[in-house]
Write a structure and sequence with these properties.
By secondary structure, this protein is an alpha/beta fold. It is 43% helix and 18% strand. The protein has one domain: Leucine-rich repeat, LRR (right-handed beta-alpha superhelix) (Alpha-Beta Horseshoe). Helix 2 links the parallel strand 1 and strand 2. InterPro entries: LRR_dom_sf.
């Protein structure tokens, strides 16, 4: 599967659903991801069984030169996945985080740091109730500091509701935090 994703010249869209792949899948994806022509990738309920597979998946995503649209859905991402996303520069323009659960406070902070370091991000959609308090607090702080400039003119959605600008997006995050506490 990883070989096809990385070498098929006309493959532009990939959807992986409910998969628990062998560790070799993630190793090969990381090794050859830079040859991929995939533009749209949906990872739905994908399981990364080890720290190494989490790191390899994040490295593969960051190395895919044509990847502009990424959807992550589910709770199968380990702390190392978010740390690696933070350390690398993901080049996507559109990112959907649906029911993504950060397993630790550090994961939440790493995810926000990764969002802020994505230079091409213009469309962000957050959906779900599994984001930790640290995620909201860090995202809010980064936006207020001006550390999230690349998305200030983009499109925002929180739990499927479009927001006009970053201020209304942050207000929705804060309202959600207040409501869920």
């Amino acid at each position: 599967m990883a070989e096809i994703i990385c070498s098929a010249p006309s493959l532009q869209r990939v959807r992986l659903f409910n998969g628990s792949f062998h560790s070799n899948f993630y190793v090969l994806l990381a090794k050859k991801g830079n040859k991929s022509k995939v533009q749209t990738l949906m990872l739905l309920s994908l399981q990364c069984p080890t720290s190494a597979s989490s790191i390899n998946l994040a490295e593969a995503l960051c190395s895919m030169p044509k990847l502009t649209d990424l959807t992550l859905y589910g709770k199968g991402f380990q702390e190392e996945f978010f740390a690696t996303l933070n350390a690398k520069a993901l080049q996507v323009q559109t990112l959907r985080l649906w029911n993504v659960q950060c397993p630790t406070s550090a994961s939440s902070i790493n995810l926000v740091e990764a969002l802020c370091s994505m230079p091409n991000l213009t469309d962000l959609e957050l959906q779900g109730k599994d984001f930790q308090e640290e995620f909201f607090a860090t995202l809010n702080a980064k936006a207020l500091q001006g550390s999230f400039p690349q998305i200030s003119k983009g499109n925002f959605r929180f739990n499927s509701v479009p927001k006009a600008d970053i201020d209304s997006f942050l207000q929705a995050l804060n309202d959600y935090r207040s409501w869920s506490s």
